[in-house]
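G.,

No rush on this.
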Amino acid sequence: MTITLYDIPSTVPGRAWSPSVWKTRYCLNYKGLEHKTEWVEWPDLETTFVKLGIPATSKRADGSSRYTVPAIFDSTTGVYLAESFEIAQYLDHAYPDTPRIFPNSTTGMQKGFQMAFGSLIEPIVPFLVPAEGEKLTVVSQEYFRRTREKMYGKSLEDVPPKGQDKVREWAKLKDNMGVVNEWYCMSGNPGPFLLGETASWADFLVGAIFIWGKVIWGDNSHEWKDIELWHDGRWKALLDSLSIYQRVT
């Protein structure tokens, strides 16, 4: 049995950078499921997924289908599936004898965490553009620039906040993560994870965002060094604790 995980390549050693795909990679490694990564360039995603029968995950403004990573193919069941939360639920259902991504009937709670966290983490995104584009292969860079500049209505270089806006937005990001830190503290459980000693979907969400930043900015970047110190080192400790599930195959 081997699960194929579809991801977008980059020029970064180890190549895995996408936060969306990291959610699924964490799940596969956590459950100990044999898998391999198949790298697909960004502009080739749609044609590749349509050919394979991988479902679209959303609609564009013009009504056309949008295809995104992560996506998987499970050779044991013959299932093609996309979208990280759907994949996580599938893996728990298909492989119930492995560690649960949603333990103790927490699926609904963790879906709520995902929605709230997604809103709070939004300020980090402009800081990672255009740095993310610079880490892509030449094949994907043009696609990334064209689609992102259309999305933002400005050049990639003008997307990151500057001057006092940069200071304000970075402080907002830190404050927002302070809210998430409070959620972790409220559990009252010892250990680095939301549920204490047991990793789960919520931790994979947070870990995926921060490994994205760490890979794109670099281990020794000012941004990552600052985040490491936030909230008594909470996020560095979380990422360190998740390191055993960061294998890229």
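When you get to it, here's the other one too:
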Amino acid sequence: MKKIIALFTSLVILYSVYHDLTVGVLPALSANSTEQEESSGPIKEENDLFTKKIKPGDTVLSILEAHQQGPLPVAIEQIVADFERLNNGVKPEQIQMGETYKFPIYLKETD
């Protein structure tokens, strides 16, 4: 009986690890929220962005933080949505070394 319980427990643990690695546990953004962000995003003009050629070790966040010279005033979800919109759906984790991408410029919030 102990072996059956141990086997069942092991299967549950293995399945939960598999599910976490393949699907994840964080909720995905729905299509409606993405459409709303696209229509009401803060980036409306060419002056609200800059382009940069990707070097080894660059990430979207590291490039934006270096350009902003400090912490970013918006949520990471907004950064991802803006980056994808500016670069025809390219996800931040898919950037390629040597390619040039558009990045949003965020104004720092003032009190």
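The chain has four helices and two strands. The two ends are 65 Å apart (CA to CA).

Enjoy the weekend,
O.
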